[in-house]
């Protein structure tokens, strides 16, 4: 049965802040692929995601306003579904895929998220993206295609397929997380889902061969950064923004991620960008600006929890 329509705030200020939060999360996500490749040289995908979830939980849980939080049976059901989906479908599939394909291919598949998000939000939450938003989605997808270009050696069909399935799962998880955040607040929703996901991954990791930890300082830096800045902070920002902006716009802004990743590749790894990649980056910036344009606010809704 289709759930009730999701209500966005009427206050333009809240919507601007939501866009800023989503954009900030996407910028931080830009380092994920580079750090992920470093960490995967030393630990398995299962334990990499487990440590990410565990660190994120440790960072976020102490700040949850427990005395003001009342969780219903439905809330716990959403937490369990969301945490399991994030752990086993979104993150684990993506990093299992990243271990089997190139970072370029994995980044390329991020382009499927905005159109999938728009269609899913139209059906689930009855959002109706404006023509400008649809144009931004098209520009964003084209920008990623040009930016990433043709993947190099190391690409496999299995790796690409796993990354694609992770993006499909990410769309469903995003809409579920937004609904949960609307009920409990973004901070509690994010922290509790990661804590539940950590428990799931811990069991899976032990079953698949026991603990795995980084063997070098670089590996530890990668894991710690992924768990704190690239998971705890980013997903709180993204979830906080999602209850204030349309899912389609959030998806467009999240495609800034591969642009940041490409820029870091140039600065940190000495990679070069061809003319098409530069055009692709410009299209991503244009898409983000187009998606950020104000339009008529939706119908008023109750005040949203901030944490």
Brief digest:
The chain is mostly helical and 307 residues long.
Helices and strands, in N-to-C order? HHHHHHHHHHHHH
- Tell me the fraction of residues in β-strands, as a range: under 5%
Number of strands: 0
Helix amount: over 70%
Q: C-alpha Rg, in Å?
A: 19 Å
What is the global morphology?
A: globular
Low-confidence stretches: 1-5, 297-304
- Give the rounded overall mean pLDDT: 79
Give the N-terminus to C-terminus distance in angstroms.
29 Å
Assembly context of the chains: single chain
Q: Please outline the major beta sheet.
A: none
Summing up helix and strand content along with how strands pair, one would put the structural category as mainly alpha
Number of helices: 13
What do you see in this structure?
- The chain is mainly alpha-helical.
- It is built from 13 helices and no strands.
- The longest helix has 28 residues.
- The chain is globular.
- The two termini are 29 Å apart.
- The N terminus is likely disordered.
Q: What features would you highlight for this structure?
A:
single chain, 72% helix, 13 helices, disordered N terminus
Task: Provide the fold topology.
Blueprint: H1 12-29, H2 32-40, H3 45-60, H4 73-98, H5 103-108, H6 113-124, H7 131-148, H8 157-184, H9 186-207, H10 217-242, H11 247-254, H12 256-269, H13 275-291
Helix pairs in contact: 1-10, 1-11, 1-12, 2-10, 3-4, 3-9, 3-10, 4-8, 4-9, 6-8, 6-11, 7-11, 7-13, 8-9, 9-10, 11-13
């Amino acid at each position: 049965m289709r759930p009730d329509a999701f209500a966005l705030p009427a206050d333009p200020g809240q919507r601007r802040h939501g866009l800023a939060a989503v954009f900030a999360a996407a910028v931080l996500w830009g380092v994920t692929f580079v750090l992920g490749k470093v960490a995967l040289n030393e630990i398995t995908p299962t334990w990499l995601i487990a440590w990410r979830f565990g660190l994120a939980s440790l960072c976020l849980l102490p700040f949850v306003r427990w005395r003001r939080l009342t969780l219903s049976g439905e809330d716990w059901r959403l937490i369990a579904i969301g945490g399991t989906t994030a752990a086993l479908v979104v993150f684990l599939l993506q990093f299992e895929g990243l271990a089997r394909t190139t970072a370029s291919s994995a980044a390329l598949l991020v382009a499927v998220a905005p159109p999938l998000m728009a269609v899913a939000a139209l059906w689930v939450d009855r959002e109706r993206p404006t023509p400008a938003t649809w144009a931004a989605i098209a520009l964003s997808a084209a920008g990623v295609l040009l930016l990433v270009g043709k993947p190099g050696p190391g690409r496999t069909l299995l790796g690409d397929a796993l990354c694609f399935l992770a993006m499909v799962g990410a769309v469903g998880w995003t809409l579920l997380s937004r609904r949960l955040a609307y009920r409990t607040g973004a901070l509690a929703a994010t922290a509790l889902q990661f804590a539940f996901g950590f428990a799931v991954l811990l069991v899976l990791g032990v079953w698949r061969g026991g603990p795995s930890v980084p063997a070098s300082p670089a590996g530890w830096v990668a894991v710690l950064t992924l768990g704190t800045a690239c998971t705890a902070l980013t997903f709180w920002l993204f979830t906080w923004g999602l209850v204030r902006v349309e899912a389609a716009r959030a998806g467009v802004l999240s495609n800034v991620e591969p642009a940041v990743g490409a820029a870091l590749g140039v600065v940190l790894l000495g990679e070069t960008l061809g003319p098409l990649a530069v055009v692709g980056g410009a299209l991503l910036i244009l898409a983000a600006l187009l998606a950020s344009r104000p339009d008529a606010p939706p119908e008023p809704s109750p005040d949203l929890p901030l944490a």
